[in-house]
Write a structure and sequence with these properties.
By secondary structure, the protein is α/β, with parallel strands linked by helices. The chain has 2 domains: 65 residues; 206 residues, Vaccinia Virus protein VP39 (Rossmann fold), CATH 3.40.50. The chain is built from 12 helices and 11 strands. Bound molecules: S-adenosylmethionine.
Amino acid sequence: MLLKDIKHIFHQELDSQYGTEEVSHFFYYFVESYLGLPRFHLAIHPQWIITKEDESLFFEGLAALKQGKPIQYILGTTSFMDLILTVNEDVLIPRPETEGLVQWVLNDCQKSESNIKILDIGTGSGCIAIALAKNLHQAEVSAIDISKEALEVAKQNAKNNKVSVLFKNADVRDMDISEENYDIIVSNPPYVLEREKAIMQDHVKNSEPSLALFVPDTQPLLYYEYLAKLAQKALKEGGVLYLEINEIFGKEVSDLLKEHSFTNIEIQQDLHGKDRFIKGTSLVQ
Ligand SMILES: C[S@@+](CC[C@H](N)C(=O)[O-])C[C@H]1O[C@@H](n2cnc3c(N)ncnc32)[C@H](O)[C@@H]1O
């Protein structure tokens, strides 16, 4: 079959669901991923023919897109900062916003030359921990998640990206960490309210793990309470806690950190100008 005919079918079948521009992106991601060809290939070779086997891959991909499956899960990979990461339905697809959280840690750490100990809580695909380990050669990075399945993906990602991260299966709600002495704790915990489901895109709420996303409407700060308590014990004096937050709770999380004796609290905005990250320093006695 001609590749251009498949492109035509993609537009016919999917434009009303996703819009023409998005469908073109999907098609070219498949061209790159399934055929190993650059996206401009079709422009240079308009009569390009693909094998029956490749044809089935495109049609399977098309069917999955029609069902609303995110392209990252269909292809099994995504990019995050300078990394290529494996993803499946056991892990949240890393968001571009979260790169801002990593970048904040990296900017602050550029000045530090000594060995630093970092803990990432709720690591998912491992994106934060792996990006930090890749860019901070002097750091010793550990990461935890409650999901054993997510940790399998994270371990594979660390291996593929040739970094060393110590992954542990643990629950932030009952983690015994009194022995530890971290310079930095970072987390992008679940923070989407159940009631926000109504305004979320179907492919997010139907495909991504609920455990990674949602908190009850009545307890929006649930994970921040555990994280603040834990970080208070586990950070060295002068150590820093970095968190991604729901944009509507910047003030509340800031107050919570103050209650737990954090100082120098700062909020930063994401690429859309929304309050998205907060950091606080563990009190120097
Ligand atoms: C919003 S996702 C973040 C994943 C990844 N760090 C990222 O930024 O893409 C939250 C993660 O927290 C994990 N998680 C949820 N409840 C947890 C708990 N009680 N203890 C530890 N991890 C938890 C989920 O499995 C999920 O991987």
